[in-house]
Amino acid sequence: MQYHISFANSLSFYLQVQCELDVPATANQSLQLQLAAWRPGRYELQNFAQKIQRVEISDAATGQLMPYRKTTKDCWEVADAAGRRVQVRYNFYAHQMDAGGSWLDETQLYLNPVQALMYAVGHENAPCELTLALPEGWKIACGLPQLASNTLSASNFDQLADAPLIASPTLTHQQYEAGGVPMHIWVQGEAALNWPRILADFKAFSEEQIQLFGSLPVADYHFLNQFLPYKHYHGVEHHNSTVIVLGPAELIMSEGLYKELLGVSCHELFHTWNIKSIRPAEMQHYDYSRENYFRTCFIAEGITTYYGEYLLARSHVRTPAQYFEELNTVLRKHYEDAGADNLSLADASVDLWLDGYKPGVPDRKVSVYHKGALVALLLDLTLRQLSGHARSLDDVMRRLYEEFGKTGIGYTEADYVRLVEEVAGRKMDAYFSKFIYGMEPLAGPLNKALHTVGCGLTVQANASASEGIFGFRTVVKNERTEVTTIWPDSPAAAALTVDDEIIAVEGRRVDMNLQTLLSTGAAQYQVSVFRQNRLLNVVLVAGPGRSFGPRYAVEQLPAADASQRVGFAKWLGHSF
Question: How far apart are CA 102 and CA 245, in angstroms?
Fold first, then answer.
């Protein structure tokens, strides 16, 4: 399969795509040209065909147009293709600037091939070439090898689809080595960077990851960075590369944004093992035309989220205190609604394909990223406690890599359970039934596990009266105070509803003073609201009931004993 990409007017955002392939004369079926409906790394249908304009299919030898018909929203069928060299031409709209998107303007071409390139069904394993028609002086950043100037080579469509690229005259590049593997950092965007610091930190966490697994499953690795002039945060993993989109560019080296750069870079590199190499059986191989349901995203994303921050501390890129700040953010996000009471992690993995990346209806779901990271922490500390720190979650990940990553065999839920129990040296039914397949609260068991390494969960009361006492959360929009969230079975649930506009409490106008008006200690309050443009007066009773919980934070125990201090050092690689 030969692909050629050009653009006539970068201001239009349209790329011109041309594909050619020889169809065997023995082919007894029609040629089906498929465009992906989703991309690996984001488990939802995105229907990239809506970006395709004006499809033309012809005989490459004669130039004669060939009739075709669409059979699905993203599949084109050519009936009389046997024995002919088929050429496909169409326009692709490249106007999505995020880590999974594609973008064209006068300064660069950024492409995620999985969005833009059709493949011939049944020919996915054929070698692919991609040639780019670029202006003079443009460079290409990509994980694929270059056969010639502006021509990239892939062994099959999967490899091509999983190889994003940036082409630009202003690309900057630095390189370091980790575990004997060349690691490339590419930057598109205007940012004043402290390269010595970046290279030292990236080398540290890269070597920590390679040491954990024993080897890197690729021959080289490429961090493709888009540093934007506005606020943004996104990262996506690929076979031997990642795209990271951050902004604003002038603040990359500030404490807050540099912390994000390190966190997402460490996270995405870990994916090189965990999901790109160690892959669930359901995704061995990808079917780009439909949902690829799997129940183990708590492994693919939850464990990676845990290690993405944890290994920065273990490699001494971050201090324990800095790591705990990130861990506390995960805790806060996990407890910001009651979804964890209603959906298990295993089912949440499947439901990524339903609404996993949207807020969704209230209290319906749980995050495979946040809860997944917390149950990974719980498992790591449990394995360490059972073995006196002789074994840990590291051993589980190494076993997954040896048995499945290196062999190309997809793992199942049962495989993961088996490996965890073999590393633990005992049955782990309670862990899986409560925290993976059940909805047991995490705070108690997590606090107990943290005590084994001289830490614990501190509890701070919710300082917000509306949240902590009554169980509702608001947001101010255009000077309107609107209810956004109500905790189930809270006092607010008996009086308020989402989208209520609160205009007064006990006759006093609400104007950035809601918490003060609800903090007088009264047993009840008369609250005036607009509901569906009707004025209502409701009574908010400060009685028993559930509300937004306390705020949890991980902290070191001031009176940790010698055993706990040793456990802390073995877990984090820092002295207590």
Answer: 12
Instruction: Supply the CATH number for residue 88's domain.
Output: 2.60.40.3650
Place of tokens 């049944």: 122
pLDDT tens digits, 230-254: 999 999 999 999 999 999 999 999 9
What is the predicted pLDDT for the residue at 463? Answer: 87
Would you say 170 and 107 are in contact if contact means Cβ atoms under 8 Å apart? Answer: yes
Q: How many domains does the chain have?
A: 4
Residues of the chain above pLDDT 70, percent: 100
Q: How far apart are CA 492 and CA 488, in angstroms?
A: 9
Q: Are residues 208 and 245 in the same domain?
A: yes
* Shared-domain flag, residues 470 and 331: no
434-449 tens-digit pLDDT:
999 999 999 999 999 9
Q: Which residues contact 254 (CB under 8 A, 6 or more apart)?
A: none
Q: Give the residue among 151, 137, 128 at the shortest CA–CA distance from 5.
A: 151
Burial (0-12, 13-18, 19+ Cβ within 10 Å), 53: exposed
The 8-class DSSP code of residue 404 comes to I
Q: Which bin fits 82, alpha (ψ -120 to 50), beta or left (φ > 0)?
A: beta
- On whether both 385 and 534 belong to a single domain, the answer is no
Q: Is 559 within a domain?
A: no
Query: Within this chain, do residues 337 and 436 fall inside the same structural domain, yes or no?
Result: yes
Q: Which residue, of 229, 251, 273, is where some domain finishes?
A: 251
Separation between Cα atoms, residue 362 and residue 462, nearest integer Å: 20
Picking from 211, 230, 251, the residue at the C-terminal end of a domain is 251
Which range marks the domain in which residue 487 is found? 465-541
Q: Are residues 42 and 143 in the same domain?
A: yes
Interatomic CA distance for residues 284 and 150, integer angstroms: 31
Same domain as 150, residue 30: yes
Q: How far apart are CA 177 and CA 201, in angstroms?
A: 12
Structure tokens at 442: 């995490």
Structure tokens at 205: 């966490």
Residue 29, class by beta-carbon neighbours within 10 Å (0-12 exposed, 13-18 middle, 19+ buried)? exposed
Instruction: Tell whether 183 and 159 lie within a shared domain.
Output: no
> Each residue of 484-530: pLDDT tens digit?
999 999 999 999 999 999 999 999 999 999 999 999 999 999 999 99
DSSP summary character for residue 340: G
